[in-house]
Amino acid sequence: MKKTQTAARRINSGLAGALLVAAGLVFASCERNLTPDGPNLGDLYGNFEIREGLQVSATTVDFSAGQTVHFTAKTSITADWVLEVRGTTSGSRWRLEGKSKELNAANATWEGQTTQFPTFAAENCAVKLWYVGQPDTLRSTVQVTGTRALEGIVLDAFDAPAIQTHWTPFLQTGANMKFTTVNEAPRGQGSSYYRMGGAVAWDWLIGMLDLFADDFNTTDGFGLPTDATQVYFNGIFKQKAGLSNGIVLLQFREDDNGDGVYQSSNEDLWAVEIRPGANWKLESLKYSDLVTLINGAPASSVGNGIHEPHKLHQVSVLFLANPSSGYAECDADALLFTLNAPAKL
Question: Model's pTM, two decimal places?
Fold first, then answer.
């Protein structure tokens, strides 16, 4: 009888130990699961407080020398913020939006570009930072001593007489024709831009500019690479306020067979139509996305059907309008190719 009781006590003791071990494992497992996979809820729903005010990494910046400037600030919780730099002379604006507890060099660096034209000048700039839904606006300043240079293969910025030495113009005999550089406000980039205007009652074409690779430089295809996905054509355009009939047609002719001329019957012509608005806007077009257009509609290519920017023979800027629509006017500026990414203007 005693042996049976002793054995029973040993069994009960063993079961108790196993249960304690199992409970410990369960507790440890639950303890590990308490570690959150996502953000701390306190970072999202705690009380909003500005821990560090707006600071600028430098009081002056020379973008022409490749310098940049960044902005810092810290809050108690993750919040939506808006950072804006405004040129006090030019009126240009650069706007950046984000969501974080901290602004720093990783998420708030300015390289001199603009989001509202004109581009910045050498000027004093007002900086402000505000958090969505919060009453306070943080302010600072930064002085631009050198402006950002156009980076890429620049066909024309219309600030120098390139239009007189490189381009081949064709103008219809229309009414009130305007194909010339102007420097009136509002400007796009630099001091001048190109204006195209007129009324032609018998044809959609009002005028055009042709730029041949051989006239631009001695490098085939404007010096562009073979990979069309790396090439972007960029330009900023606007239309005269109150008008909406102007069309800018960009054409890109390739010399597919390499004989030095373009044959319309068997070589590729890529194109895109732009209908500018009343304000300057940057258009960045990936070369591989260009299509063949016939009367404004996509059509089959007549060449080998391969986008080959290194074989680009001619760039044309055509200005069009419905002949029954009357006077049309559009402006163009900063026409350039960039590689791997759209232009930063």
Answer: 0.82
